[in-house]
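Milestone M4 deliverable, item 7.
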Amino acid sequence: MNSEYYSSLITKCITTRHLKLGHLLHSHFIKTALTFSTFLANRLIEFYSKCDSIQSAYKVFHDIPIKNAHSWNIIISAYARFGLFDEAYHLLDKMPEPNLVSYTSLISGLGHHGFCKESLNVFKSMLKQCSNLIFNGFTLVSLVGSCGRLCAPKLLRQVHGAAVIMGLNSNIIIDNALLDAYGKCSEANVSFSIFSRMPERDVVSWTSMVAAYAQASRLEDAYRLFSQMQEKNTVSWTALIAGFAQNGRGNEALHLFEQMMEERIPPSAFTFTCVLSACANLALISRGKQIHGYIIRSTSRNYFCNIFILNALIDMYCKCGQMRSATMLFEGMHEKDIVSWNSLITGFAQNGHGEESLIVFERMIETGIKPNHVTFLGLLSACCHTGLVSEGLRILDLMEKDYGLRPRSDHYAIMIDLLGRNNRLEEAMCLIKRVSKGSDHVGMWGALLGACRIHGNMDLARKSAEVLLELEPGNAGRYVMLYNIYAAAGRWDEALQVRRLMMEKDLRKEAACSWIEVRNIRYQFFATERFHCRIKEVYEMIHNMVDHLYDSGYLPCHSSFLPEED
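Output delivered:
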């Protein structure tokens, strides 16, 4: 029997992933000394790597008496595909004469596993060590993918320019990769330039262009292009839905999802995470529950294995105030990542259950999950909402001392809010002075100004307002708050001066609004609204509630005349 026959048998084993038959062939090769054939040994390495048996693949490679370049390339590619980069680097260093395939395998593997900077570093190393190598289309696709994921447009242009100078022939795969990469860098015009010059386009081309417009927040352009598509698939629909959801237009995202369902396009896990995010941001609990039900019906119990869907569901229930449902989902998860823990910690904090938030954190530490900056934002919010000043200071200290995480401006802003709420204004002021660049952070001064209004500290209020008006001269809300502070203290001259300044600068505070979902219909209300279709019923209910407040002994404060921020 010749090598071609055995090679065809190995090909069948690869196609069927028949590991047992492959082992039998390998045993036969050992007995008949066919493992000394570099050609058959290479096929065995390929077989084992495709069957996820990397140790067996390396054993065959190690036993080859005469290794050729293909032997090295297959094993380097296998290790890179599995994310075992230390071994891949080691093999590349030991390879007598690395070639373009060797480097491309490592570049591609690193990019695929999210190590985009390392991927580009390997490319730079290739250019230094092998100046005679000219990269090909496979290398280019991997490189531009890494540039796109890093959002590095300058580097992307350099790689693209080098490919043009080298005379690399363009094809639909390269064009799609470039189109996608420029889109991820928010260079929608460059993406469209490539798209418009493409002699041939497929569904990937159209979808990438839709995603590029969505990434650049050009949603009308994205929708217009999407409407022109002859063929739409799950990825196409999801790209558009994600664009609307991520740009604060959740209602349109949900409407598109309904259209997608009507056209019987099966949603992916990413589709579900996008629409659940839209429900969370709009606090549409009924719609969120409907989508949850659809997930259960369409995926059976498999959705419990998809951590992205579960995290999105937990986030949605937390933001809608349904902590019991969020906790049940969390406890039912087979595997929890840092996002799962952070969602529950933040959810308890935002819903006023600070003690529970701290308990979840302790559980997280016990399981060996290392907290990140988002974790501590949730914990500090929990302390802020429950007035746990000492615990908040301890957690802020814990961040850097125990976990090596330097607090950011947002962490200090919450801490200042916590101190301010508890009338420890001088400590809050000292914290602003102590923090690097704290004097330029809007959130810190905003928290201090709000606390000054509550406790009537006019000196600090004036200082805070002066800084804020310098940092945010166009924010009408800051003027309104300062006006109300002066009004509350009966200092009408200063209050009217602030009001006059607002008028001179033509500043108007955006009308506050709220909304509620009733029977899958979202009702939105603006402050001082008079034209809502059910405004009469709304005001009757408000008057009834006010009467109940008076009966309970509530006395309104008439010293502030301008509406505050939400």
